[in-house]
Amino acid sequence: MARRTVQGPKFLHSRDVLLFSQRDEDIEDCAALVDDFTTRVLILHGSSGSGKSSFIRAGLIPRLELAAEASCSFFFLRQASDTSEPLLIRATDDPVARIHHSLQAAAKNDQRIPPRAREGMLTALAGDPPYDRLAAMEKILAALTALTASLRDTFVLLVDQAEEILTLPAEGDAKNRRKAFFALLEGICFSRIDMRAVVSLRTEYYGQSGPGLSHVRGPPHPHLVGLLSQIPKKS
């Protein structure tokens, strides 16, 4: 039988949840990690073509949206073109700017966010992100603090294809952009912000010795966890 993968423009959405029924165990494992209050950043890693984006869209998100008894309820940003579909932010070579623009757009347009939180977010994110992405990172943390302080549910930030910060040709100061992104993850880990970040990337970039995720991992601590087993390649 020919090998098939879920990738590129054919990735699945939350409406395709039934297609992921055979991966219920993986979904439950990830959902339990996100539901754990000690988790701040979940690194979801797998090989190229293993279906990480589809796993998040059609597996993890629908499971988290089921408000199970004794579990957290979660709040996701929504795509501007489809208010029912959670926003999965593609990293590109400048994930801090992408996150800045996504939060800024949500503050302007998402009526689910309380007015006080929207005002605080817009104040923190006024204008374009600073060229120094480390300064932009601080503004994002301030906006996340304003957002989560007014939400009843736990905010989940979804970032896809994080390896792009390491692999794509970068314009401007690539080193600064990379450092800012991993500093943002570190800031989320050690802050008192009521949120989770779910970040997907290819396994070969997980915990590599050079600049990358090793920058944020540092000594083991309870707020940064990786998926214990890789997502198996679909066949």
Ranges with pLDDT <50 over ≥5 residues? 1-10, 214-235
Radius of gyration: 17 Å
Q: What does the overall shape look like?
A: globular
What CATH calls the topology is Rossmann fold
Run of helices and strands: HEHEEEEHHHEHHEHE
Head-to-tail CA distance between termini? 8 Å
In CATH, the architecture is 3-Layer(aba) Sandwich
Features:
6-stranded parallel beta sheet, disordered N terminus, disordered C terminus, Rossmann fold, alpha/beta, two-stranded antiparallel ribbon, 235 residues
Commentary on this structure:
- Helices cover 40% and strands 15% of the residues.
- It has one domain: Rossmann fold.
- Residues 1-10 and 214-235 have low confidence and may be disordered.
- It has 235 residues and is α/β, with parallel strands linked by helices.
Secondary-structure topology with pairs:
Blueprint: H1 24-35, E1 41-46, H2 52-65, E2 74-76, E3 78-79, E4 82-86, E5 89-90, H3 95-109, H4 115-124, H5 133-149, E6 154-160, H6 164-167, H7 174-190, E7 195-202, H8 213-217, E8 224-226
Parallel strand pairs: 1-7, 1-8, 2-6, 5-6, 6-7
Antiparallel strand pairs: 3-4
Helix pairs in contact: 1-2, 3-4, 3-5, 4-5, 5-7
Short description:
It is built from eight helices and eight strands, in the order H-E-H-E-E-E-E-H-H-H-E-H-H-E-H-E. It is α/β, with parallel strands linked by helices and 235 residues long.
